[in-house]
Amino acid sequence: MRKLNVGLVGAGFMGKAHVVGYSNMPKLFWPAPAIPVMKTICDIDPAIAADAKERFGFEKWTDNYMDIINDPDIDVVSVCTPNNAHAEIAIAALEAGKHVICEKPIASTLEDAIRMAKAAKAAEEKGIISMNAYQYRRVPALVLAKKFIDEGSLGKILNVRCTYLQSWCADPSSPLSWRFQKAIAGAGTLGDIASHVIDIAQYLAGDIDEVVSMMRTYIKERPVQEGGVDLLGTVKLGDDVPKAPVDVDDEDSFLVKFKSGAVGSIEATRNAWGRNNFITVELHGTLGSIYFNYERLNELQVCWANDPDDRRGFKTIYTGPAHFYGEATWNIPGMNIGYGELKTIEMYDFIRAIVEQKQPSTKFSVGCRVEQVCAAVEKSAQTRQWEKVIEE
């Protein structure tokens, strides 16, 4: 069976998620399209890189990503760094003939996103695959929702409402990670989590054409942590720790108009006490409705307009072996999958795309369009009026 040597850049939270996906893919999808081999892991902190080599089972470690780019044995590059490093690493990898999967958002600036999309287009002509890691659209329940929409079961789509609510930023004592710094992240909640539901909304209902938005920053400064590790709210720092300004958004709310004529709304915040990873999608059509909640990711609620009056309402479909990616699920619906299986599905799509030489659904141009929507959201928050999504 074909093997693909993996070089992974960034040994933090998302690096671990990619390793889980690569490692589990052949175990859940068998026969696998190819076998990922954990070749080289890179982190700018040598101690973290060396530790990750042992922890994740890589053959080598380095603190210079160019060692991966220049290694002729590396077939695949995973980019799991903070956002501002995505473009330089991904473009270098594509130009070196490596297949690339890059975490979202695709870049910290729209300019870099456009450069990455152009580099991916040029590489595509040479058979190189690029993928932006928008894993949530690959939840089997949402793929099932997409099937219902595409086959016309919901009729004409009228309205789409999406939320992504978290609470890990709600405590002011949560440290100032790179996610709170515009120079590194590019944006706060908008790029970090709103981008996910923008992608889901466009996956289900087509491209967003116009937005009007509000953006807010609630916590203006945070305690400075030691080191660059993203702790994602898992620790709290005391009042004696020096503080530094936060210059990104905590909350984003915006109305959207789709090219199809549908309308909707998107709300995202990392300051919602009681909400953990609360992604919801509610979509209304002329023939029915669907509702999805990621915290119950194995369920899709559907309502059909043609049901008799005395029994019309939402019913719950539990995804399992009969549904999309059923190979990766367990034998009985309700046994359920979680985040680890979802990253495994993502890596299956990526590796299969490489083997079949077909660009995945979240190729770089798709990630770039999410950034174009984000740019319109940011502009609207300043102008306080409807702004078109500019495609370049």
Overview of this protein structure:
The mean pLDDT is 96. The two termini are 41 Å apart. This protein has 392 residues and is of the alpha/beta class. Strands 16-15-14-13-7-12-11-8-17 form a nine-stranded mixed beta sheet. A six-stranded parallel beta sheet has the order 3-2-1-4-5-6, with helices on both faces. It has a two-stranded antiparallel ribbon with strand order 9-10. Helix 1 crosses helix 9 (339-356), helix 4 (86-95) packs parallel to helix 5 (110-124) and helix 5 packs antiparallel against helix 10 (364-383). The chain has two domains: 3-135, 3-Layer(aba) Sandwich (Rossmann fold), CATH 3.40.50.720; 137-337 and 345-361 and 369-383, Dihydrodipicolinate Reductase, domain 2, CATH 3.30.360.10. It has helices at 13-28, 46-56, 66-69, 86-95, 110-124, 140-150, 182-185, 189-205, 339-356, 364-383; strands at 3-9, 35-42, 60-62, 76-79, 99-103, 130-133, 157-165, 208-216, 221-223, 243-245, 251-258, 263-269, 278-285, 288-293, 299-304, 315-318, 387-388. The relative contact order is 0.17.
CATH architecture field of the largest domain: 2-Layer Sandwich
Q: Give Rg in angstroms.
A: 21 Å
Gap between N and C termini: 41 Å
Q: Sheet bearing the most strands, described?
A: 9 strands, mixed
Q: Count the E strands.
A: 17
Q: What amount of the residues lies in strands?
A: 15-25%
Portion in helices: 25-40%
Mean pLDDT: 96
